[in-house]
Specification:
The structure is a homotrimer of 138-residue chains. The first copy, chain A, has a single domain, classed as Jelly Rolls, CATH 2.60.120. The first copy, chain A, is built from four helices and eight strands. In chain A, β5 and β6 form a beta hairpin. The longest helix of chain A has 14 residues. At the A-C interface, α3, α4 and β8 of A face β4, α2 and β5 of C.
Chain lengths: 138, 138, 138
Amino acid sequence: MVRTERIRVQTAGFADIVDITREVAEAVQCAGLRSGIVTVFVAGSTAGVTTVEYEDGLVRDLQEAFERMAPSGRPYHHDRRWGDGNGFSHVRASLLGPSLTVPVEDGRLMLGTWQQIVLVDFDNRSRRRELVIQLMGE
Amino acid sequence: MVRTERIRVQTAGFADIVDITREVAEAVQCAGLRSGIVTVFVAGSTAGVTTVEYEDGLVRDLQEAFERMAPSGRPYHHDRRWGDGNGFSHVRASLLGPSLTVPVEDGRLMLGTWQQIVLVDFDNRSRRRELVIQLMGE
Amino acid sequence: MVRTERIRVQTAGFADIVDITREVAEAVQCAGLRSGIVTVFVAGSTAGVTTVEYEDGLVRDLQEAFERMAPSGRPYHHDRRWGDGNGFSHVRASLLGPSLTVPVEDGRLMLGTWQQIVLVDFDNRSRRRELVIQLMGE
């Protein structure tokens, strides 16, 4: 079985971290996937996907780590050339990566108890994002 | 074919890097997977998975890189709120990511000669980890 | 359907970033994959795979970010022991990761308009790389 779903997420940008675990779990349930993998993929070059214990403190800690990794105040060649002002967003997105693979067993995402799937929107403005949730298995 | 296996790994925590290539290769062999993908996934929010040439020097180099990326001596909002003292572990785990996909051909992992699959346990204590090895293909 | 293809890429090393989107799209077309996933995997421990808006400015921005993450001028234990001089290459490769999963729908990679698949070769010399493009689905 291959099933391709999409979910829409409104973000505030600037490393906004959005918990999408429930939406992914619902896609698994709706498709009736018992055993296999879920690919979570964000189309676009200024956002990424990972997992985190979703609580306010860590959300801020992670945002500060992104700021150290690719500071928003640095000059970027991308901005000098295109004037978008979101060079830092692109760099962070490439480092984090756009895809995540989560195994499913007995119809359930095999996540830890304190492990949530998150979209990180690095862009320098609010965005309406479309995520691909692709289910493969039986 | 979809097959979900688990392996247990004892770690020392503090960015302990454990070579799990043999265990993953054995899972491929036991399942009789000839062609397809292996998803290596660690449930939990303070560990990650990647590949590295597994030798003492690089193990230490990688540990030092994690220390620069999310220093253990910094204050973290997570620790202030929950007192776990492992804010740095969570941040590193989110940046590295919990999943790795390795293609299989003719029953063999398509790794380079000096490329091993490793679990990195970022937690601030010794842990007994359970990893998911999911095989999909023919 | 499982199909395993290989593509060869000549790189300059030193964080050379090569756009391989066309080659991956061609592999999808040749295999006749309509719906499923493509796993892009680089065998070897001094290269990685990600996505980026492929334009000169960002290519340089990303290279500078890798230089900050694991500076080429630092001493590495790997180099002290093995004399390869590419400790920084290994560390960067482990942090970026060797695999990327891209979903396919209606025979097309579900990438954003300004999102290209790239190989990053971190080694300290020119290399001829072999990438695995594995297609799974229907």
